[in-house]
Amino acid sequence: MKMKIYFLIMIIPLLNGAYAQQFITKASIEYEVKSNVKKTMFNFFMNDDFKDQIPTFKTGYYTFTFADNKSDYKFDHWSDDSRKVPTYLKTDDESNNWYTDYNTGKLIMQKILWGSQLIVEDSVRKLQWRITNDTRVIAGFNCRKAVAIMFDSVYVFAFYTDEIMISGGPCSIGGLPGMILGVTIPRLYTSWIATKVSVTNVNEKDIKPVNTKKTLTVQSLKATVVDHTNDWYSDDAEFNKEIQQQKSRTLWQTLL
Fold it and tell me: For residue 23, which of 199, 183, 189 has the smallest C-alpha distance?
């Protein structure tokens, strides 16, 4: 009898741990996305009075909805502080959309570029991740850190959890053995952090691509951006340095 009691005492914690482990295949994830406005604008044009009038960050909230190994990622709302950010720095963000079908490896992005709507259809982005031993808890999930390089030179730092069963993340970032709940891209001065994960009332009807007959590839989108920014130049050496940095950030942000 004592042996049976001892056995139960030993196995109950193990059972509790097994039931506590989550394996989520359908959910809605909210991300807080913070971008440093003052770092990404043309400082050459910003006087001190203007800098004092706008907040350092614009903070938006996005929703990543997934089911059946398909996902939709789009803008939801701005933070109260972001109301002071000029409208022209926020409008495009509100219309961008990412649809991913992980079963077929297809990515469809809706991008607003200089007032024009562009639909990009291509393969899911593949990144060479290096998984580290660093860990962090995000939105109640144990996450592991991974590092990759995008666009040849842009470092991406991500935290993912294998308790959420989709190889996705915000924008077109993914490819890890689980869901990315945190991302930082220093050269874009932007971070993405999941604030909550909801497994109930998931609206699967929202998970659908934009309907259109005319699409671009990622390469043709890149060519469009390069062509549009080709004449961005100044004879002032210091200002021209900033222009070249801005051209790069515009390209990376558009392709993300």
Answer: 199
Give CA–CA dist 242/41, Å, rounded.
10
Does the residue 90 lie in any domain? yes
What's the one-letter identity of residue 30?
E
Contact 216, 224 (CB under 8 A): yes
Question: DSSP characters for 131-185?
Answer: EEEEEEEETTEEEEEEEEEETTTEEEEEEEETTB-S---STT---SSSEEEEEEE
Whether 231 is in a domain gets the answer: no
- Owning domain of residue 39: 23-126+137-142+159-217
How far apart are alpha carbons 207 and 188 in whole angstroms? 27
Best CA proximity match to 185, nearest among 127, 113, 135: 127
User: How far separated are the first and last CA of the chain, in Å rounded?
Assistant: 63
Radius of gyration of the CA atoms of the chain, in A: 21
- Whether 237 is in a domain gets the answer no
Spatial distance between the Cα atoms of 239 and 180, rounded to a whole number of angstroms: 37
Question: Per-residue pLDDT tens for 119-159?
Answer: 999 999 999 999 999 999 999 999 999 999 999 999 999 99
* Measured distance CA(167)–CA(182) in Å, rounded: 13
User: What is the tally of structural domains in the chain?
Assistant: 1
pLDDT score at 15: 40
